[in-house]
Specification:
The protein is an alpha/beta fold and about 190 residues long. The protein contains eight helices and eight strands, in the order H-E-H-E-H-E-H-E-H-E-H-E-H-E-H-E. The protein has a six-stranded parallel β-sheet. A two-stranded parallel sheet has the order 7-8. Helix 4 crosses helix 5 and helix 5 runs parallel beside helix 6. The longest helix has 14 residues. The radius of gyration is 19 Å and the shape is globular. It starts with a helix and ends in an 11-residue tail after the last strand. The model has no long low-confidence stretch (mean pLDDT about 85).
Length: about 190
């Protein structure tokens, strides 16, 4: 089987959240697409359009309306829709998809150190082809949030250095929380 590392030509992946963005993904230089929109009726059409344009397609199981989190859903997707792979937060679906010959991406939310530890442990057990971690860029997200709300922002999770705290503050956070006692006495 081909490695996911081998299929990446563009390091930007188009993550399609709306049907209207399929054409934009087709016209983009991104060779890999994540489909995060659709339902059991429309998703095959999206996959076919993208594949016809030479795109490598991954269906996000957790976002397709009408899909159950079952082995039979994975079997159906593999045989009827024929994407290159799936994305999911559910390790049992990773296992079923691998059995069907699909590539797999385990999505992990980076809430705090425990989430990282548990997410990596789960990924090591189910052995996906790749791991997608969210959030990817915290200072960017903090900056974005300060532009859409007047509520104070407190950044937290995954903070392990003074530099990370300064980056969060520079991005507009009111304060940064950390579970690392070594950072609690910084004079900031």
């Amino acid at each position: 089987m081909v490695s996911i590392v081998d299929i990446v030509q563009s390091q930007v992946i188009s993550s399609i959240k709306n049907e209207k963005d399929i054409k934009k993904a087709i016209d983009s230089t991104a060779n890999i697409t994540f489909i995060l929109t659709g339902d059991i009726i429309t998703t095959k059409e999206y996959i076919d359009q993208l594949k016809d344009a030479g795109k490598i397609t991954f269906v996000h199981m957790d976002f397709i309306e009408g899909l159950a989190n079952t082995r039979s859903a994975i079997t159906y997707i593999a045989k009827a829709w024929k994407p290159h792979g799936i994305i999911t937060t559910k390790s049992n679906l990773i296992k079923y998809a691998k059995e069907e010959g699909l590539m797999t991406i385990q999505r992990i939310f980076l809430i705090d150190r425990n989430a990282i530890k548990k997410g990596i442990e789960i990924a090591h057990n189910c052995k996906p082809d790749a791991i997608e971690v969210l959030p990817g860029l915290m200072p960017t997200v903090i900056d974005e949030l300060t532009n859409i709300t007047t509520l104070p922002i407190i950044a937290g999770g995954l903070i392990s250095s003074k530099e990370e705290i300064l980056n969060g503050l520079k991005a507009g956070a009111l304060a940064v929380s950390s579970g690392d006692p070594n950072l609690w006495n910084l004079e900031l």
